[in-house]
Every structure is written in C-alpha cells, then in structure tokens.
Design a protein that fits this description.
heterotrimer; A alpha/beta (about 425); B mainly alpha (about 280); C mainly alpha (about 325); B: about 280 residues; mainly alpha; MetI-like fold; 2 domains; 14 helices; about 0% strand; C: about 325 residues; about 70% helix; Inner membrane ABC transporter permease protein YcjO (chain C); MetI-like (chain C); cell membrane (chain C); transport (chain C)
Chain lengths: ~425, ~280, ~325
C-alpha cells in the first residue's frame, strides 16, 4: 500500500515537474477551501484585483466549518491534491505542520512577518516554523449593554469576577420585556460551546489534561466552573441556550435581547445596538486562559501541485496591502477590514476612527496565553493542540449540553465526559 | 333519512375544509422558506417584520454573485439526469429478466440488492475517498457522482421496475417470442410501451432521490462536480445573521425539483405502486 | 431455446449484479480490513499508526473499544426509536390524509400538490428550515408564538375582573428543540413531515384501485363508514403499508444531516453519526462501528424483507 502510494506520489510529482515546466506563461488556477465567514466571502471580491494583476484564477469552495474540516482532513490525509489553499484554525496549524500535511511558509522580507501579532505567530507555528498565515484573528471579551447596566445601577469592569458578572446579569435580567441577563454559547462542539466553557474552566484554574495528558474533568475546579456556567445560563440566560452559538446569540443581541455576551471579539464589528461597552473577560482567580485565542489562517497542503502560486496568494491575502485594499474597496471600507492579525492594522487612523472595539480587541489578543504552563501542560487556550482534541472536546461538549438542558447533573455530565476523554486518550496511546 | 342527508351535507363542507387545512399546514414550512427569502438577514429575525416587510431580491443577487449558483445547479441537473438514465439502462434489462425468466435465485438476488441499499454510507466513506482519489483518480468528477448516484438508487429502481413488469401478462411477451422477435425487440417494442407509466414513475422517483442526495455528493466532490447539496452545506450556518440568505439559497436549491414534482404529480400518484396494487 | 432461456436472463442481470457487487464488496472489504488494524489519520505519539499497514494488526481491539465507547448502545437504541416513531407517525397520518383526499371536492388537485411538496425537499434544507426558522425558541416561529401568547396574556392581566383570572396564568417558556431531551423529537418531526407525503402518495394509489362495488354492497348492507374502513380499506392497504414501512426503514436507518444540524449528536445519535464522529481521526474505530452498522442493517433487512418482500414476490 505504502509503496504504491509512494510510486503514485513520485509519478505525480514527475508529472507536476513536467507540467510546470510547460505551464510558464499559462494562467494558473488555485482552489481555495474557506469557511463561510464574512471576511472570507469579502476576500472573493477583493481578490478579483489579484486575478487581474497576476492572471491566477481563483476557485472558491465555501463549506460549513465542520464539513470543511472533515473534507480537508480526509483530503490531506490521503495525500491531498484537491485544494491548493485551505482555511484552517489554530488548533490544526501546529499539529498538521508537525505531521507534514501542510508546508512551512517562508515569506519575502517585505511581507514583514514580525508585524504579525506575537500570539498569532506563536499559535500558528510548530517548533518556530510558521505553517499558516493568519487572515484574521480574535480573542474573546465581554460585550455588555452600558445603558442596561447603568439603569440597573451595576458596573462591569475589566477582568471582573464571575460573581460580579452573575450579579450584573441578574440585575439586567428582565424576561417579561424580552431581555435576558447573559447570552453565552452552549451548542455542542469543540469549537462552539466547548470553546467558551474551556475559557471559563481556565479562569477557575482548571485545565483539560495534567502533565501525563490524563484528562482532569473530575477536578473540583471543573465542577465549580461548569456549575457556575450552568446556573448563570439557567437563571439569567435565554431559553434554548444549549443550541446557541455565535450566530444565534448575535441575532439575539442585535434584537436587544441580551444584557451581556462573552464571545469572539469579531462579534463587535457585527453589533448594531447602541450603548455597547467592552470589558476584558472575567475570571475566578486565574486570568491566564480566561480569554481565548483563535485565528482563521491560510495554509498550503503538501499535496498541491501549485505550492508556489498558493504561497504567493497567501502572501498577498495576509499582507498589510490586503488590509489597505479592503479599506479602500468601494464595497467594503475600513469597518470591514480583517483584524487581529497584524499590529499595523490597529495603527491605521481610518480604522481607529470606525472601530470602537479596536483597543479592547487588541488588549484581549495580547493577553491571550496559548503557551504551555505548569498548570496547563499543552499548547492552546480554548482547545488543546493535539489531534485527538476535536473528538474529546465534542464528546465532553455533548455532556455539558446535557447538563445545561437539565438532562444530567453537572456531576454526572463531567463524570461521563471524563470517562469518554479517558477512553479516547488511552486509545490514542498516551498512557 | 333526514339525519343522513344532514350528515352528508355537513361532511360535504367539513371534508374539503379539513383537507385544505391539512394541506396548508403541510405546505406552510415551504411557503415560509420562500417568504423569508425575500427578507434581509436583519429583517428576518425581527418580529415586527414577521408578515409585513419590504421585499428584496438582495439574497438572490448575493447568492448568484458570491456562490456561483448556476454552476451548482447545472451540475445537479447533469448528474441527476445521467444517473437516472444510467440506472434505467442497467435496471430495465435486469428487471425484465427477473420478471419474465425467474430462476430459483431471483427472489434472493432481489432481496440482496435491496439489502445493499441499507449499508450505511458513513461506514465506507473513507475507503471510497481513498479509492477514488488515490487509485482511480476520479474524485470530484461528474462521472463519479453519476456512478455513485446510480448505484445507490439501482436497487430501488430494479425493484420498482420488477413489480411493474410482473403485472404484465406473461402471454404477451410469450406471443412476441413465438413471432420470433428478438429479446431486444421484446424489451423495446412490447415491454417498454406497456410498462411506460411504471418506467416514468421510476425515473421520476430516482431523479428526486438523486437531486436530494447529500452525503455522497458533498463528500466526493470539491468544485468541478459539486451539486446544489454542496451549496447548501456552505450556507447552512455562515457567520452572522443568515436566515434570509439561507432561505434564498434553499429556495433556489429545491425550486427545480419541487416544480418538477408538481408537474408530474399525476404520474407519481398513478405510478407509485411498488406492486402493492393487484 | 432452453439454453437461451437460462443464459440470456443471466446476461441481462449481469451488469446490475456485478456493479452492485463491486459497489458493496470493494469498499466494504477495505472497511473490514481497517477495522482490524490500528489506523488513525494523525497521531503525534504513534506516527506508525497513520499508515494502514498490516503490521498495525489489532485483532478485535477496535471492536472492543467501540463497544465501550460513549453512546454506542445509546446510538443503536435511539436509532430504532427514531425510525419506529417516524414509521408510526407517517403510516397513521398518511392513511388518514390519503382517505381524506381520495374523495372528490373542490380544489382537490391543488390540495394534492400542496400535500406532496415536502417530499421533494432536500433533507439538509428540511433540517435547517425547521430548526432555525420554525423551532428556534426565540427567533423562530416557536419562540415568536410563545412570546405573542405571553404578551396577549400580559395585556389581559390589567382587565378588571378577568385580569384576576389571567394573573393566574403562568408565563410560558418556549420548548427548545436542540436540547438533549428534545432533539430526537425535532428530528422525528421534520422527517415525518417530509415522508408523510410519500405514504400519502402510495396509499392514494392503492385506494384508487379499491373495489368500489364491494363498498357499495357494504353500504347497502348498512355498514357504517368506520366499519367499512376497518373491514375493507385497511386489509386492502396491508401491502402498501408494508411497502411504506420497508422503503422508509431503508432511508431512515442512515439519517445524518438532520441529526448533525439539529443538535450535533447531543441526546440524539445513530450509528452513522457515531461513525462520522470517529471518521475525523480514528479510521479503525470508525470502520469497526461501520461493521456493526452493517450487521444491524442486515438484521433489520432480513427481518423486513422476510416480512414484506416475500408477499410482494407472489
């Protein structure tokens, strides 16, 4: 099997070499797999200029996040070739780089790789080599209705305590008038509800694994964090929180139904209600990991025949010039530039003028800590950069959703989650 | 007698009313989908615009500009049409043989064919990706999609055709044999005209199943052969508010098949017997 | 002539049989092989497991792992629950509606067209439409209706005498259909909506072939409409019911999109979905689950085909 694959690989590489020799001067095509997010969809239009300039035709495949991941994984694991550029996140970048699934990125000097925010660079690298370039990045923060807190006579401050957040949510909670104190994610999935719950757990001093990579969901810290989360949402959250993620809450928030919302900083650019104020994520004594760090980045799968063109495109799409191109584009403007990737973006005066959330976002990204610590012996804030994490995270997330909807107690849910995580880690050969 | 006629008069009114009410309930979700597709994403979640709003085509223009709707739609038409034709080409002779020249094993073969339809696609997804990409090199081609759509529907096609053919008196076919008509002639000149209604119903049902197949079509294509199912996969949960966008894409994806179904409704009602009518 | 009688049918059947055999055997044998080896797409600790090599032979290890994995038994049980519920609902509703529209009345053609429309809708569209626009507890019609009722009741509380009565009314909470306890019902509801029209189609066809003279005789004998329905119509529909049950079982055993879209497997799973969860990395476990799913499908197939298929062959 292996040798057959190698022969096929060698053969195809020969063909590639031959065809590229002849292909000079011909129009190239790149197939780009993207998640269906606003910045990525806008890129399709902005990149028309790129096609005009270079003659490289771009084919966009936009898929739902989970399906994209599944498709890209099975393509990459079977030697790739379907996509020239893939949209991946911070969870995949370092491990896929380590597995040799994606190519290291070395850009020219004018790309100014040092301008990329350090947290982003660190999160997308493996052993100091950058494997994916951030298209946009985000952390998480509190977005609350200042008008409602003022009316209720409460305040929310940066790095607040969860007790105070709960008190503020209680003060704003007025379901008879359609206002719910706190809207938080609960939808099962490691990238949805679990991402938020992990930051809560981190802020209580919990971690996913101990130094032997044994899951630690049975610790009192996890219990305290999940109990607080479940009580907060059940007392002061909207109905159906176990089905809510970013989109659902965004709709609620813009309808004026939420007092406070803790979620991706990118949400700030979608908010249309008045009186929104921002604060750094709350914690219960441990600020490290209380706010997450994520990037939608672009990488080149190893199987592609057009690696050079793909890298050239990524260099353009993640550059300072791209930010300028979006800002000056008649359809988009400065309010729609991708953020969270480069320090220089935040220094642009036109951007500062339209983005009231810029300072809070930058502070949140800067304080996010993906690196390993004694408490948390793995890379990643709201995820763990190991190949098994999506499975572990989703299994635990389903259990927490069960606790949230009252089908299980927090103890039962965490015990079931612990058992599932333990089985997966044992199966993967960690111990 | 008076009570009976009163009863029947009452039922003459109530009967259609009940039928209409149930029909409208069943159709309501589709109506709501189409209705929502003319709202902006922001309006679609606002209760004040629940019934009265300024209609917009924004979602449809957005869809054709950003997602190349027509490429997906054309792929759906091509793959569904050819898969249906291919399935009939393979299915008609097989069903003919089973209906008119049954052997001891015919029943078992038919049962076995149907049982292949029960195999869960997810169980063989990874091997299929592996085979079609690394060994056959037909991943993301129309050929592959047509082949797979044909194969997953073939058991139902053969079974449906078999049940229609069985209702044709054997003597008619035998008479053809006596006259020295070739097998091909039998199929073409006697069987197909006689079973035309059944074949048309089978084709219709197969076409509907092909059009609506999502598991394989999404997972065995990337761009060249991607069908409307892929378009739906890309739009079922995009970032931000999306009810309007999603409704427009969904409406555009189901409209061709729903309209086709409406036109062929009589054919479906008449033909979907599966041998149940004697 | 006699040899022609045997070989020709065989030749005519060959393409179908061979195609289906390949379609079934090749991927399935690979699945079977993968189910006996350690095979993961990515593992940083044990990179040797990432190639499907015979040296990773594991015997029944994957099967053991899967049998003890979270939700395995739940998935089987839940799968049977969903399919059975859908079958009961569609058959009962389908019978009722088919009888209803079998009579002539003004606009029957349009009623039929409206009724069968859900059957043409793509499963993924069905699921996103129901879970977002209809069942969402705040933004969907479900939530809006409950909010509407609450605000009406709230308005009535201020009335002089009646207000006292309405003050006793509780504020209604909308049901969330993405919750662990309810997600299976959401899937049952949307699939039943889509497949009831299929049952109606088949029952309608059969009703049209019902022997009218028998019915007339029964009416003259003074049989009530209900006893006619039970004694004449239902026996006549036994075979169509069997067909509806069989075809639907074939399709609903492999529900996938609806489960994913409604609750991502929270409180609602079947074996295909469990396989999907494994496929993201652990191909060995996914394959072992796949083999279990094949066994389950075959058990049901034998049972169903025995029950239904035999009678259809005669």
């Amino acid at each position: 099997m292996k040798s057959l694959r190698n022969t096929a690989l060698g053969l195809s590489m020969g063909i590639v070499a031959a065809s590229t020799a002849f292909a000079d001067g011909h129009a190239k095509e790149l197939t780009i797999a993207i998640v269906n997010n606003g910045h990525m969809i806008n890129m399709q239009k902005v990149a028309e200029a790129y096609t005009e300039e270079t003659g490289v035709k771009l084919n966009w495949v936009s898929l739902e996040e989970g399906v994209l991941r599944e498709q890209v994984t099975s393509d990459t694991a079977t030697g790739g070739g379907q996509y020239d550029i893939i949209n991946i996140g911070m969870q995949e970048a370092p491990i896929w780089g380590a597995a040799g699934w994606i190519e290291p990125l070395n850009f020219s000097a004018e790309y100014d790789v040092d301008d990329i925010l350090p947290a982003m660079r660190e999160g997308l690298s493996h052993d100091g080599t950058l494997y994916a370039a951030p298209f946009y990045g985000e952390s998480s923060m509190v977005m609350y209705r200042k008008d409602l807190t003022d009316a209720a006579g409460v305040t929310i401050v940066d790095n607040d305590s969860w007790d105070n957040i709960t008190a503020a949510a209680a003060a704003m909670h007025d379901p008879e008038n359609g206002v719910y104190g706190a809207c938080l994610r609960g939808k099962p999935g490691w990238g949805d509800g679990m991402a938020f719950v992990t930051t809560v757990a981190n802020s209580f001093g919990a971690a996913w694994f101990d130094k032997d990579m044994k899951p630690t969901l049975d610790t009192p810290e996890w219990n305290a964090a999940v109990t607080m989360y479940v009580n907060l949402l059940n007392s002061y959250g909207p109905p159906g929180s176990e089905g809510n993620s970013f989109n659902e809450i965004l709709a609620l928030y813009n309808e004026g139904k939420c007092g406070l919302w803790i979620d991706a900083t990118i949400a700030a650019s979608f908010l249309e209600v008045d009186g929104v104020a921002y604060a750094q994520s709350p914690n219960a004594g441990n600020p490290v990991g209380a706010n997450w760090l994520w990037a939608w980045a672009m990488a080149v799968p190893s199987g592609t025949e057009n690696a050079d063109e793909a890298k050239a495109f990524i260099e353009w799409a993640t550059s300072k010039e791209y930010v300028q191109a979006v800002g000056n584009h008649p359809d988009f403007g400065w309010a729609k530039v991708p953020t969270g990737q480069r320090a220089s973006t935040y220094a642009i005066p036109e951007f500062q003028a339209v983005a009231g959330f810029a300072a809070a976002e930058m502070a949140a990204i800067d304080s996010a800590a993906p690196g390993a610590t004694d408490l948390k012996p793995y890379v990643g804030v709201q995820f763990v950069a190991i190949p098994e994490f999506p499975e572990v995270g989703t299994a635990v997330s389903q259990e927490i959703a069960a606790a949230l909807s009252g089908a299980k107690s927090v103890e039962e849910a965490l015990a079931a989650g612990q058992a599932a995580a333990d089985a997966i880690m044992k199966e993967a050969g960690y111990y | 007698m008076a009570t009976v006629s009163q009863n029947s008069r009452l039922s003459n009114v109530l009967w259609p009313v009940a039928a209409w009410v149930i029909a409208l309930i069943f159709f309501f979700p589709i109506f709501w989908l189409v209705f929502t597709s003319f709202k902006t994403d922001a309006d679609a979640v606002k209760p004040e615009f629940l019934f009265f709003f300024t209609p917009t085509l924004e979602n449809y223009t957005n869809m054709t500009e950003n997602y190349d709707y027509w490429r997906f739609a054309i792929n759906s038409v091509i793959t569904s049409t050819f898969a249906t034709l291919f399935a009939l080409t393979v299915g008609v002779p097989a069903a003919y043989a089973m209906a008119f020249n049954p052997s001891r094993h015919t029943k078992d073969i038919l049962m076995w064919m149907l049982s292949t339809k029960m195999l869960p696609a997810a169980a063989v997804l990874y091997p299929m990706t592996f085979l079609t990409k690394n060994f056959l090199g037909i991943y993301d081609t129309h050929f592959l999609v047509i082949l797979v759509l044909c194969l997953i529907n073939l058991p139902i096609v053969i079974w449906m055709l078999f049940t229609y053919f069985k209702e044709i008196p054997k003597e008619i076919i035998e008479a053809g044999k006596m006259d020295g008509v070739s097998t091909w002639g039998e199929i073409k000149d006697i069987l197909i005209p006689l079973a035309w209604g059944g074949i048309a119903s089978t084709a219709l049902l197969t076409f509907i199943f092909c059009w609506n197949e999502a598991y394989w079509t999404v997972r065995l294509t990337t761009i060249d052969a991607a069908t409307l199912s892929t378009l739906i996969e890309g739009n079922r949960a995009p970032e931000g508010l999306f009810f309007g966008r999603l409704s427009a894409v969904s409406t555009a994806a189901i409209a061709p098949i729903v309209i086709l179904g409406w036109f062929c409704q009589k054919q479906l009602v008449a033909g979907l017997t599966f041998g149940a009518v004697k | 002539m006699s040899s022609n009688n045997r070989t020709l049918p065989r030749i005519l059947q060959t393409p179908a049989v061979v195609l289906l055999l390949i379609w079934m055997l090749v991927p399935l044998s690979m699945t079977l092989y993968f189910s006996f080896i350690r095979y993961v797409l990515n593992n940083t600790r044990r990179p040797e497991w990432t190639t499907p090599s015979p040296s990773n032979w594991r015997g029944f290890g994957n099967y053991e792992y899967v049998l003890n994995a979270k939700d395995f038994w739940f998935a089987i049980q839940n799968s049977v629950f969903i399919v059975t519920s859908i079958l009961i609902i569609t058959v009962v509703l389908g019978l009722g509606i088919a009888v209803l529209v079998n009579r002539k009345f003004p606009g029957r053609g349009i009623v039929r067209v409206l009724l069968i429309s859900p059957f043409f809708v793509m499963p993924a569209v069905n699921a996103v439409l129901w879970i977002n626009m209809i069942l969402d507890p705040v933004l969907g019609l479900n939530g809006l209706a409950v909010a509407g009722i609450n605000s009406v009741v709230d308005g009535l509380r201020d009335f002089p005498v009646l207000g006292w009565f309405f003050n006793l009314w509780p504020v209604l909470e909308p049901i969330s259909f993405r919750a662990t306890q309810t997600s299976a019902y959401a899937v049952i509801m949307m699939v039943a909506w889509q497949w009831t029209p299929f049952a109606v189609l088949i029952f309608m066809t059969s009703l049209q072939s019902e022997d009218e003279s028998q019915k007339e005789a029964a009416t003259l004998d003074g049989a009530s409409p209900w006893s006619q329905f039970i004694n004449l119509t239902v026996p006549h529909l036994a075979r169509p019911i069997a067909i509806v049950v069989m075809i639907q079982s074939i399709f609903h055993l492999s529900l996938y999109a609806e489960i994913e879209i409604v609750s991502r497997g929270s409180g609602n799973k079947n074996l295909p979905y469990l396989i999907g969860e494994f496929t993201n990395n652990n191909i060995g476990a996914a394959s072992a689950t796949g083999i279990f799913a094949v066994i389950l499908a075959n058990i049901i197939a034998i049972f169903l085909l025995r029950m239904v298929g035999k009678s259809l062959m005669d």
